[in-house]
Amino acid sequence: MAAHRATVNVSASVLPDDMKASVGGTIVYDLNDIGGSNKWIYFANNVSTTAQPIMADGVSFLAGDAGDETAVLDADTDDLGFLVLKHSGFQGDGTTVSTDNLYLNIEHGKAASGGAEDLILEPGDVWWGRFVHSDIDDISVDAAGNTIKLLIYAVIDDGGVS
User: Fold this and answer.
1) What is the pTM for the complete model shown?
2) Per DSSP, which regions of 92-162 are E strands?
């Protein structure tokens, strides 16, 4: 069976040189933190220049997760618990280098558009978040220019948290 935990380590050097400070920490997300049917998804999404949900229906859960090899994502009923995103640094073809930013919006009912409310991932950036059973189709992404290959690692509650 797949690992039942995700670990994220963060280390940052911040402030001007004469006041430099280091901050950091580690979070551990246990698959059983929220919900009763949590499963892993790994998906390489081709994000276009039109806002779209971060994951679409039909993405398969990792084989062997909870003994279920046939279940697929249903963005309308499954809930997101944990998410790690990586802007691969490549366009959708996986070979052409990308210099375009990716826009991420986690606000219910708002589409990513490159506006002030969006988070930005530059090529090579990694972003993570822990969610309280959020609807997957409420999280949207958009590419600033050409299609971007986005790597998605997620814990999904299959069927949603009741």
Assistant:
1) 0.86
2) 102-105, 119-121, 126-135, 140-143, 148-157
- Alpha-carbon gap, residue 60 to 71, rounded angstroms: 6
Question: What tens digit of pLDDT does each residue of 54-73 get?
Answer: 888 888 888 765 555 567 88
Q: Which residues contact 20 (CB under 8 A, 6 or more apart)?
A: 13, 14
CA-based nearest residue to 60, from 52, 69, 51: 69
- Burial grade of 151 (CB within 10 A; 0-12, 13-18, 19 or more): middle
Closest listed residue to residue 106, CA positions, set 53, 144, 150, 31: 53
Give, rounded to a whole angstrom, the gap between the first and last alpha carbons of the chain. Answer: 24
Closest CA to 89 of 151, 141, 140, 42: 151
Tell me the domain boundaries of the chain: 33-157
Tokens for 105, please give them. 């919006």
Query: If you average pLDDT over every residue of the chain, what do you get?
Result: 85
Question: What CATH number is given for 33-157 in this structure?
Answer: 2.60.120
